[in-house]
Amino acid sequence: MAQGLKVLTAVLPQDVKLETKEYDLGARRWHATGETLPDAELESLKQHDAILLGAIGDPSVPSGVLERGLLLKLRFAFDHFVNLRPSKLFPNTSTPLAGRPAIDFVVVREGTEGPYTGNGGSLRTGTPAEVATEVSLNTAYGVERVVRDAYERANSRPRKKLTLVHKNNVLVYAGHMWKNIVDKVGQEYPEVTTDYLHVDAATIFFVTQPERFDVIVTDNLFGDILTDLAAAVTGGIGLAASGNINPTGDFPSMFEPVHGSAPDIAGTGKADPTATILSVALLLRHLGYEQQAARIEEAVAADLEARDGSARSTDEIGDALAARVAG
Amino acid sequence: MAQGLKVLTAVLPQDVKLETKEYDLGARRWHATGETLPDAELESLKQHDAILLGAIGDPSVPSGVLERGLLLKLRFAFDHFVNLRPSKLFPNTSTPLAGRPAIDFVVVREGTEGPYTGNGGSLRTGTPAEVATEVSLNTAYGVERVVRDAYERANSRPRKKLTLVHKNNVLVYAGHMWKNIVDKVGQEYPEVTTDYLHVDAATIFFVTQPERFDVIVTDNLFGDILTDLAAAVTGGIGLAASGNINPTGDFPSMFEPVHGSAPDIAGTGKADPTATILSVALLLRHLGYEQQAARIEEAVAADLEARDGSARSTDEIGDALAARVAG
Ligand SMILES: CC(C)[C@H](C(=O)O)[C@@H](O)C(=O)O
Ligand SMILES: CC(C)[C@H](C(=O)O)[C@@H](O)C(=O)O
Q1: Predicted TM-score (pTM) of this structure
Q2: pLDDT for A39-84, tens place per residue?
Q3: What is the pLDDT of residues A184-195, one digit of tens each?
Q4: Residue A100: which residues within 8 A CB-CB, separation 6 or more?
Q5: Mean pLDDT along residues A25-49
Q6: To the nearest whole number, what is the mean pLDDT of chain A?
């Protein structure tokens, strides 16, 4: 986080005054007070132009507590319906894929519906007669707005290609609704080529033909799975940035690395801050600072190209990138 | 399918009389009669020791019709709760992964529950006010039996390792039930090491460290996704075999390649029958013909090793494998 702010400060024009406020949320706070995201803090967060979220989570906190009480709570409270996750294979980074395909796509993951709504339950919990359900909730309202956002993005990219990923041969109700909405909205974008893949088939193409993708639009859970896989094939989770975007501007959008918190190396100076720094670029682009965003992305590409394999500390990488964007 | 039967016939001991009955099901039948799986045929299928299913599907049939009316209908009607999908990187096959990691794991995918139950619906279909749901149904009864099967398999393998894959930080009801049942059943298998991965993280390890997996147990949808990815990293969907198993023997088990029907190359002699032939091996193992199953798998490994990249027809591959298992 410190490196992200360092680069943000370095890249901003002199006349832009940056005001930041730090919120102490996450595992430490939960252990100390039992709180994840108190209402007062949620209200206060609402006042900002944007949020930069440090990776959260710690094995000492029961699974789901921080995810649902903090991260998902923010995504839902601020109606972050566009979960934006670009995937690009930068030069000189390692990919597990032989042949280094040219990967440059963006996943537009729905962020406020699907199986993530916390809708479900368990009956006779813990007994041999237990029944547990999870309900995926999908609305035309929610799907259409994210599909439209994805088409806008596809339309503004050189290849103009949109792929819907779902599983409409099994999840027929949600799947057909998604498909119909894509077909309908797609008519407004005659220059965009649209195709469809089942989620299982999509994972195959992620490793055998990732260059075929340009913009992918998909639901919350499929997007979660696909973007981790995308990060893995494009140099690892240490480089993957994401934005939780509310394009209406009614609420602040939130930017975060795709990776988790790696508490085992916290404070050792071993963490790569690049994913956070690339998230700062997405934040700047969202706020209209396109030039500055591009400058960070170019700096990261140049920095990766210059890496010679010798280990640098978190701080050193941050310094190097801050120097590049300032220069 | 013809090659599968050819190899099956070749490998069986002289004194075993093989009786087969062919069922004309799939796209052609549906076009001709509108039927997918009539009750009479379902009854008749019940009488067999096992079923070998040819890949079904055709773009001329609306998505979901054959999948739900035939394939899933059989899996559910015959209570195929163990969907068994071994993944092995054979020598001399191509993998998209650099470094050719040693991959040899098996996914035990639950086959009769989860998001595959057809439970869901749509309200105000086709309007801007549409709401569509998909309900994942999970029972302790259903989860425990497949978890137990997975532990049995892990316990009989040299590495004795079981990984539960789910998403219990978000899908808390189903996820916690799965986790609790794995913890409980695991106590009966003290020699088996158990771990847990979220499904998104699991996809990362599939491409960066697939050698870490031995037995994976997971739900119906996650298993669907993971096994396509597994097939992709182990030489492609052309080699991936699967069994839809009812270990109680109350109903016949069903064996099928993981891949689809490739109607574009049907009849051209270009399809690789290896996945079907490996499915025959799983069928034989299930019926107690362990030696014959192993013979087929060895033949496939030897055949792959001997391949020099020159194209062979479907028939030639079948002949070569039949000759190897007979010899
Ligand atoms: C931590 C978890 C709730 C989260 C998600 O599933 O969305 C994470 O995996 C992500 O992709 O941002
Ligand atoms: C065809 C489809 C219904 C099926 C599934 O989703 O189970 C297939 O993808 C598979 O993995 O066998």
Answers
A1: 0.96
A2: 999 999 999 999 999 988 899 999 899 999 999 999 999 999 999 9
A3: 999 999 999 999
A4: A89
A5: 96
A6: 96
Residue B294 pLDDT > 80 = yes
Q: What is the predicted pLDDT for the residue at B136?
A: 98
The stretch B86-111 carries a mean pLDDT of 93
Are A110 and A83 contacting, i.e. CB atoms less than 8 angstroms apart?
Answer: yes
What is the b/e burial string over A213-238, where b = at least 16 CB atoms within 10 angstroms of the residue's CB? Answer: bbbbbbbbbbbbbbbbbbbbbbbbbb
Q: From the CA of A170, give the closest atom in ligand 2.
A: 3
Is the Cβ–Cβ distance between A86 and A216 less than 8 Å? no
- Which residue out of A131, A212, A224 would a mutagenesis test of the B interface target, given it has the greatest number of B Cβ atoms within 10 Å? A131
Please determine, for residue B236, whether its predicted confidence score (pLDDT) is greater than 90. no
Contacts of B212 in chain A (CB under 8 A): none
pLDDT of B164 over the 90 cut: yes
In the block, tokens 């055709």 appear at B58
The three-state DSSP-derived secondary structure of chain A is CHHHHHHHHHHCCCCCCCCCCCCCCCHHHHHHHCCCCCHHHHHHHCCCCEEECCCCCCCCCCCCHHHHHHHHHHHHHCCCCEEEEEEECCCCCCCCECCCCCCEEEEEEECCCECCCCCEEEECCCCCCCEEEEEEEEEHHHHHHHHHHHHHHHHCCCCCEEEEEECCCCCHHHHHHHHHHHHHHHCCCCCCEEEEEEHHHHHHHHHHCHHHCCEEEECHHHHHHHHHHHHHHCCCHHHCEEEEECCCCCCCEEEEECCCCCHHHCCCCCCCCHHHHHHHHHHHHHCCCHHHHHHHHHHHHHHHHHCCCCCCCHHHHHHHHHHHHHC
Predicted pLDDT at A29: 95
Element (H or E) spanning B239, and its range? none
CA–CA dist A14, B301 (Å, integer): 66
Mean pLDDT, to the nearest integer, of B182-190? 98
Residues 6..45 of B with a Cβ closer than 8 Å to A: which?
none
Q: Identify whether the C-beta of residue B258 lies closer than 8 Å to the C-beta of residue B237.
A: yes
Distance of alpha carbon A279 from alpha carbon B22, whole angstroms: 57
Q: What residue's CA is closest to ligand 1, atom 7?
A: A224
Give, for ligand 1, the residue of A72, A82, A113, A254 to mutate: max count of ligand atoms closer than 8 Å to Cβ.
A72
Instruction: State the pLDDT at residue B237.
Output: 84
What chain A holds in terms of domains, given with CATH numbers, is: 2-9+24-117+130-326 (3.40.718.10)
Query: Among A11-25, A59-73, A89-103, B111-125, where is mean pLDDT lowest?
Result: A89-103
Q: How far is A3 from chain B (nearest CA, A)?
A: 25
User: Would you state the pLDDT for residue A263?
Assistant: 85
For β-strands B253-257 and B241-245, DSSP reports them as antiparallel
Name every residue whose Cβ is closer than 8 Å to that of residue A221 and which is 6 or more positions away in sequence: A114, A115, A116, A136, B167, B170
Cβ-based contacts of B141 with chain A (< 8 Å): 128-129
Give the separation between CA B257 and CA B242, rounded to whole angstroms: 6
For the cut 80, the answer to whether the pLDDT of residue B259 exceeds it is yes
